[in-house]
Input
Amino acid sequence: MSNIKKRLKAERRFKFYGQLGVFLSLLFVTLLMLKIFTTGSGAFFRTTIEADVFFDPKFMQVDKNSSDKEISRSSFEALADSVVNNNFKDLNEGQFIKVREMFTRRFDYQLRDYFLDNKDDYKKTVKLKITASSDLDQIVKGNYPRNVPEEQRKINDYQLSILDELNKQERIGSTFNFWFFTNGDSRDPETAGIWGAIMGSFYALMVCLAFAFPIGLFASVYLEEYTKPGKITDLIEVNINNLAAVPSIVFGLLGLGMLIGVFNMPFQVPLVGGLTLGFMTLPTIIIACRSSLRAVPPSIRHGALALGATKTQTTFHHVVPLALPGTLTGTIIGMAQALGETAPLLMVGMVAFVMEIPGGPLDPATGLPSQIYLWSESAERGFIEKTSAGIMLLLLFLILMNLTAVLIRRKVEVKW
Amino acid sequence: MVDNNNFALKTNNVYVHYGNKMAINNVALDFPKNEVTSLIGPSGCGKSTFLRCLNRMNDVIDSCKVEGSFIMNNTIDIYRDDLPIENLREKIGMVFQKPNPFPKSIYENVAYGPKIHGVTSSQSELDDLVKESLHRAGLYDEVKDRLTDVATGLSGGQQQRLCIARAISIKPEIILMDEPCSALDPIATAKIEDLINELKENYTIIIVTHSMSQASRVSTKTAFFHLGNLIEEGDTSKIFTKPDKEQTNDYITGRFG
Amino acid sequence: MKEHTDKNFENRLTAIRDQLSEMSAVVEKQLSLALNCIKSKDSDYSITIQNLDLQVDDFEKAVRDECFEVLTLHRPVASDLRLVFTALKVSKEMERIGDHCRGLSNKAITSKSDLDPEIIEALSALGRSVLSVVHEVFDSLFTGNIEKAKESWRRDLEIDKLYKSILKTLIDKMEKNDSIIETGTQHILIAKSLERIGDHAGNIAEEVIFNISGQYQDIEKIRV
Output
């Protein structure tokens, strides 16, 4: 009788420990998410300053009859300066520079892009929301304290007074920062985007998939269906399991040493990054493929063999199709792992400042995680929120990929 | 009485080893054409192993060594090196203990064998063959409206009859059945047994069964195995009324162990 | 023979065997009492025989029911099936023997005693011979001795011979002496009953041979 009380107590205690553990881990995840979301959400918006823009022929080398190509090539720098001068009267040179600094350096690009779409506004005045510089943006978002000595601020008192004036005139606004999703990297946080990194990761993953999936599938089919159990098979098995546990930086070194060093492949391109990630993912894919091949009941093989099918027919008509859902699930999980991996990319140079959006696996590119790494290393305050936003995007992709894997597993689960 | 032409398969001096373990010890057994022969015996007696020798399914197992002569239709040694195993299995079909339809459509299950062997030359011919095989397996009327449905959705008995339809679709001469009813309920079992009785018109059937009453119902010849030895073989009525060997009597009356 | 894995089945089969054995003892007793009747014409014997016959009838029904249950519930095969099959038929034969004993004892005590002692003696000899065949055949049934069964089957011939000679003697006597026709006919019927008992014993022997060998054998082959 006393025994049962003790046992039930132990039962309750154990349950409590379990609940505590789950609660703590959920707490940490929530805190992490909270931190990332609060710092990162700012990156999706940018501060704008409303200004009257007169498309003054004096400052433009093109007119409304110019072709798109001509417009794209022409400079809008002078026009941008004129906009500053027109909107803020009677500026001396020092003041002009300070005011100009409040706008993004890419002011001219924004004017050009607008003019490309609205050539009829030639010689007309329009109200445009011009993107503010990142430093101003941070002040407006409250990420920079205002009440510190002037020399510790990037925005000096004069600029602050202008800002307050603009605020009064309700010319300071905020707009959705689609640049973040369409631009490549930039020195200026306000124009820096993640699209280049996404494309870099995309090409690298495609290369990784094209390399690792067929090899992984065929290797596991061969190991599972054709080899006889023995010392050599055991040795291979152990080695594959070992490889799956090797730190990713080692694969990065392999990529660097072999692909770049021996085969003289170019530095910094998704092809090399993808192959390196492929080396890393291969054991994961092989392990997943083998276990899903093993899950196909032998009775299916026997059924086909007894009908006089050859071993290859049996394997490719019956076993592999049945194992495919599991195989795909494993592959997607492997891909997700590869997507989040930084170290191999680091070793093959896919962690560099690349402004252009890569157009293919042979263009220099950076990957999502390495972009995040780069931004986190940057000195500008504006990159802090970009870093968090990048992490949010990376997490989103990982969740999507893992969700796909789960859905495939649920949907195509075969009942015997 | 002994007319050699009436045997679909004759075996002699059969030994099977798994590694060092002997599974079949000097068995000689002949299978009369168009009759049902049942192999009975306690678990591990080697009856299934022996059955699997007959279409070389044991070749899959590496440690398994088969010796002896297996002569089909008095001419073909089924273990001859130049006889492709695939051709042999086209002639000797097999139905397994657990129904094992492919997780594909009912139609594809039956059509698979003819497809890989190129039995038919046109789609309509294949359709007819599938229909005929399902008919013979007594399944056609039950599934004719849902040939494209997944076969694993059928009941256990229907699945097993589908497996029989699949086996006969390539027109074998001999059908091996390894405890085909052990996973089925009595009604489904009765249907399969009925089917076996019909099939023996056209096929030689060799069935391994744990159910003595099944052996007595479906077979005309019965062979009793024990510890890898063939203890006794003979007409089923004889085995079940007055077996020659006491061991056989003990087994079929339930005095074993 | 080994025991059944199924104890219930084993017990039922043992019960059938035991009942058959008890029944055979009763039948043998009936027969020996009936033989006494021929000599002594004591009606007490006849009453005992009739009481025993009721027992025999009960035994036959009990064996029949038990066999029926075993057949339905346990589906015996091979030696078990043969045992059940034999038990059914043998019990029927035993019951017939019992009936004959009752009939002949009735006839014996109601007949007049105006026959030659030598006839009575011949009848007794026939009776003894029948009794010994019956005993032998029962023995072969329970010991499973096929040779003994065959031997008792052969001895049926001997009984037939004795019966025929008694028949001939009696008919001769009745031809010469009208007054004994009634008694003579009675004793012919007694002899006939004994001969029939011998036949039943032969039938039992046939069943015993089947029980052991699994097939019915041609009596002519055995007799040769």
Q: What stands out?
A: The helical segments of chain C are 7-40, 43-74, 78-110, 117-143, 146-176, 181-213, 219-223. Residues 7-223 of chain C form a domain with the Methane Monooxygenase Hydroxylase; Chain G, domain 1 fold (CATH 1.20.58.220). Chain C touches chain B at residues 1-6, 9, 75-82, 213-215 (CB under 8 Å). The CA atoms of residues 34 and 60 of chain C lie 20 Å apart.
